[in-house]
Specification:
Helices cover about 70% and strands about 5% of the residues. The chain is mainly alpha-helical and about 240 residues long. The protein has one domain. α1 packs antiparallel against α2, α4 packs antiparallel against α5 and α8 packs antiparallel against α9. The chain starts with 8 loop residues before the first helix and ends with a helix.
C-alpha cells in the first residue's frame, strides 16, 4: 500500500488500530493466565490459541497499511516481541510449572530456565535467518506445554524433554517457519491447517483424544522442528 507523505488522521488511526490489535494479545494472555491459575487448562490453551491467531494476522495487516511508514515513532517490532514473550513463553511457563506433571524438584528450575532462555532468545538479533528460518528451538513453549498436557509423559521423561528444549534454544540448527518458509510452502500450510484443527479438537474434548490423534500431532511437531535439519544433513551426506 502506498502511503501519502503526510498521512491523514484516518490513515494514522487505522495504523494505530493495528498496534492496538497486536497489544490485545497481551490482554488475551492475561485471561489465559487467569484460567491457568484456576487450573482450567483447556480454557487456557483456547485463549493462547486466540493469541496465536492475533499474532498470525497482525503482521499482514501492518504490512498492508504500512504501519511503519505511517507511525514511525511506534515500534511494532518491540510491541510484537513483548506480546510474543508473554504468550509464547511466560504464560506457558507458568502452566508447565503449575501442571504437576514434572519432577517436583526440577519444576521451579525448569520454569526459571524457560523464562530466562526465552528472554535471551527474544533479545538475540540472529533468532531469524534470511531464508525465514528460526535459529535454534524458537521458544514455542505454548506448543511444548500443549504437548505436555496432551501426552502426560512420566514426570522424569517430561522434565528431561523440556530441559533438552531449553538447551536447543541455544543450538544453531534451523527450524522452518511453517508459514513463511518457501520450501514445500503449500504442503506446510496445509499441514498447519490440519494441525490447528487437531489442536482445537483436542482442547474441545479436554485432551481426551485417541492414540491416532496424538500420533498425528506429534508427527507434525517433529516435522516442523527437525525436517530442515534432516534435509540439510541428507544433502551433506549425499552431496
Amino acid at each position: 500500500m502506498i502511503v501519502p507523505t503526510n498521512p491523514t488522521r484516518s490513515t494514522r488511526l487505522r495504523a494505530f488500530g493495528v498496534h492496538v490489535f497486536t497489544a490485545l494479545g497481551a490482554g488475551v494472555a492475561l485471561i489465559a493466565l487467569l484460567e491457568a491459575v484456576r487450573e482450567h487448562w483447556a480454557a487456557m490453551f483456547a485463549w493462547l490459541g486466540v493469541a496465536l491467531l492475533i499474532d498470525a494476522l497482525d503482521g499482514p495487516l501492518a504490512r498492508r497499511l504500512d504501519v511503519v511508514g505511517v507511525l514511525p515513532n511506534w515500534s511494532g517490532d518491540t510491541l510484537d516481541l513483548i506480546v510474543d514473550f508473554t504468550t509464547y513463553v511466560f504464560v506457558p511457563a507458568y502452566a508447565i510449572a503449575a501442571s504437576g506433571l514434572l519432577i517436583p524438584l526440577a519444576t521451579p528450575l525448569l520454569g526459571i530456565a524457560i523464562v530466562v532462555s526465552g528472554a535471551l532468545y527474544f533479545a538475540d538479533r540472529r533468532m531469524k535467518t534470511d531464508d525465514n528460518h528460526f535459529r535454534g528451538f524458537p521458544t514455542l513453549w505454548n506448543g511444548a506445554a500443549f504437548y505436555l498436557f496432551l501426552l502426560k509423559p512420566a514426570p522424569a521423561v517430561g522434565s528431561i524433554i523440556l530441559a533438552l528444549l531449553v538447551v536447543l534454544t541455544f543450538v544453531p540448527f534451523s527450524v522452518m517457519h511453517p508459514v513463511r518458509t518457501r520450501r514445500f510452502r503449500i504442503f506446510n500450510l496445509a499441514l498447519i491447517v490440519v494441525w490447528a484443527g487437531l489442536c482445537i479438537f483436542a482442547i474441545a474434548v479436554n485432551f481426551q483424544v485417541s492414540v491416532g490423534v496424538k500420533a498425528a500431532l506429534c508427527a507434525i511437531a517433529l516435522y516442523i522442528l527437525f525436517s530442515d535439519l534432516m534435509i540439510r544433513l541428507f544433502k551433506r551426506t549425499f552431496a
